Amino acid sequence: MLSVSSLASRPEYSISAVTCRDDHVRWSGPEVCDTHRVVLVRRGRFRRRVAGTPTDVDATVGYVGLPDEEEHFAHPAGGDECTSISLTPDWWRDLAGESPSLRADALYIDARLDLAHRRVLAAVQGRDADYALSESLLGLLAATVGQVVSGPTPAGATRRPLKDERALVTSARQVISDGHPASVALLPLAELLGVSPYRLSRAFSRELGVSVTRYRNRVRVGQALDRLEQGENSLAALAADLGFADQAHLCRTVRQLVGHTPTALRQLLVPASGVTDSHNRPPR
Predict the structure, then answer these.
(1) C-alpha distance from residue 1 to each of 37, 79, 211, 256 (Å)
(2) What is the CA radius of gyration of the chain?
(3) Contact of 85 with 15, CB cutoff 8 Å
(4) Burial 49-64 (b: 16+ CB within 10 A, else e)
(5) Coil vs helix vs strand at 227
(6) DSSP tag of 228
(7) In angstroms, rounded to a whole number, what is the distance separating the alpha carbons of residues 113 and 133?
(8) What is the pLDDT of residues 47-90, one digit of tens each?
(9) Backbone phi, then psi, for 64, in 5-degree steps?
């Protein structure tokens, strides 16, 4: 029995949790998928066969699937739980190149890739698909694509000249600060600036030492502090105005960056009614 549940979906990608409870050593009939995808096992193991070549897939070996290839599966160990990441052709080209040649479809999942996979799943729970999840996913995909594609890839290309990279980050900062509609998510922001999302993400880390996600949250938290200082009483309205998923997402982000909840910050920033600093009392 196979069950698939969506974890996150954006125009450029989708992430699904796939659970299989089959128990059979024989190969299944042919299955064909129409997207590029990366499949990583969380628990259990199974076998996959493409073009007559079998691969044993488990937590240490995943695979990259291509559109229209014919796959067969066997489940001799009683099933598995996987994460399946599907990509649009445009996003695949951004990461792998225009006409990439695969030297292998199997992925060795070392400890760093395992951690990157877990961080993607944690980002799903964080409810910030437009920045935190997309940026975590880009790191995972760049590592997996670089492992299976022959030759250099756009994601693994050498860094841009320092001047160009600094100008890119400066432009991105301005767009974020201005609240341009494209700044609501990493992918449209990169498209507006004419670069791949991976390039933009990497440029921020190199130039400022923080991710573009953290930088954007820094700007939003600054705006939240302004509003709290001005006496904003509705955290739900504040969260909606600043583009957070909900009030809990706002509170979590503010506490992570500032060390206080919005409620505590309001008490710190807004003087208590009727209390006047003795050094600033007006003369009688």
Answers:
(1) 21, 9, 40, 41
(2) 23
(3) yes
(4) bbeeeebebebebbbb
(5) helix
(6) H
(7) 16
(8) 999 999 999 999 999 999 999 999 999 998 888 999 999 999 98
(9) -105, 125
Reported pTM: 0.81
Residue 210 tokens read as 């923080």
**Given the structure tokens 């799903």, which residue do they identify?**
124
- DSSP structural state of residue 105: S
Residue 61: alpha-carbon gap to chain centroid:
22
Residue owning tokens 């990493």: 186
Structure tokens, 152: 């250099």
User: Rounded to the nearest 10 degrees, how much is the dihedral formed by the CA atoms of 163, 208, 210, 97?
Assistant: 0
The position carrying tokens 């756009």 is 154
In whole angstroms, give the CA distance from residue 193 to residue 168.
8
- The number of residues in the chain equals 284
Once rounded to an integer, what is the mean pLDDT over residues 242-267? 92
Query: To 10 degrees, the CA torsion angle through 232, 233, 234, 240?
Result: 10
